[in-house]
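Annotated sample (chain length 307).
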Amino acid sequence: MNRIKLSILFITLFVPLSLFSAEIKKETRVFAVKDNQELKMDVYSSDSLFTSGQPCLMFVFGGGFKEGTRDAALYKDYFYYFANKGFKVVSIDYRLGMKGQKAPTLFNNKPLRNAIGVAVADLYSATNYLLQNAEELNIDTSKIIISGSSAGAITVLQADYEKCDHREPAKVLPDDFRYAGVIAFAGSIFSTEGLPSYTQRPAPTLFFHGSKDKLVPYNKTRFFNRGVFGSKPLAKRFKGEGYPYTFYTMENIGHDVSEYPMKEFLPEIDRFIRDFVFDHKQWMLDIHLEDKFRKSDTSTNPGSYYN
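Output written by the structure step:
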């Protein structure tokens, strides 16, 4: 065997397929029509050969439930990274229930509750579409992971909570379906029953949140049992109940954490998926990270964002 053939054999055997930057293809589909609006999804995939079902990473964009798009340029690195890793990456539309609304408060939260509700419903519709078309799309339905930024992070955390708690909106999904993992970039859960308590075990969850986030609370904002519960109390609940999770607290950072981990923490996100979703490790990790060189605007709050 000559040297060239040996080199090719070495590459084939020992170099992971994901190290090669394959061509990424994007296909846009309509998954539902609601309120006279076509809801679309972009499906990103590699041109590499995958004969068995691929894991699927769904994504819900951010924008305070009032703005944003599924194909914003700032998400491209995230989509392409995981498409190159062999995932079907699916970025979805959802109806923007806070468009034209005033800043939510604990005593004026009905528009926000409605916005979260329709976003979760649209995520469930997109999930059902993938389940019904899994064979054509070559998706392994036992490995559907939901992820989101800001409003999208709220949506995915709320969606998994409502599915695990057997809430009425989640009944549109098959009884035996469970999300395989949740990734939330600055998210929270809205609850009228105090800190969320899961009837069934939630999916392994990766939390990213800035400790100085004033737009989506890092801790909680509540009045009696009604309130918004951020990553800190949610991770505390996970730890207390023994649910697997990883929680990155970005010390002294504001709402920036809803975006930059999708560029700067891609290997860490990938490792979470491998360890917690694929290998089912039962770890509970709390990571406090302080970056002395990162400057953050910690002033953004609901009042300044919506008005």
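Annotation: DSSP finds nine helices and twelve strands in the chain.
Annotation: The CA atoms of residues 279 and 300 lie 38 Å apart.
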